Amino acid sequence: MIAQNAHPRAIMERLGHSTINVTLGTYGHLFPTLDVELAQKLDNVWTKRIPLSS
After folding, report:
1. Do residues 9 and 24 touch, judged by C-beta distance below 8 A?
2. How confident is the model at residue 50 (pLDDT cuts 50, 70, 90)?
C-alpha cells in the first residue's frame, strides 16, 4: 500500500490499527519521501508568494 502511495490513514484503517501512531510507529520508516515531498510543496508555496531577493 505504501508503494502505491496510499495515505497513512487509509493504511491504518485497512490494517485495523487502533491509532495512526501504531501505523506510523510500525511503518513510518517506509515513508522516507513524505518529508521531501512536503518540503518541496512548501517551497513551491513560499516561492510563489514571497519573491526571492536577487
Report:
1. no
2. low
- CB-based contacts of 14, cutoff 8 Å, min separation 6: 1, 6
Domain span holding position 18: 8-49
Instruction: Show the DSSP H helices in the chain as ranges.
Output: 8-15, 20-27, 32-49
Residue 1 lies in a domain: no
Q: How many domains does the chain have?
A: 1
pTM of the model: 0.60
15: in domain: yes
CA–CA dist 25, 28 (Å, integer): 6
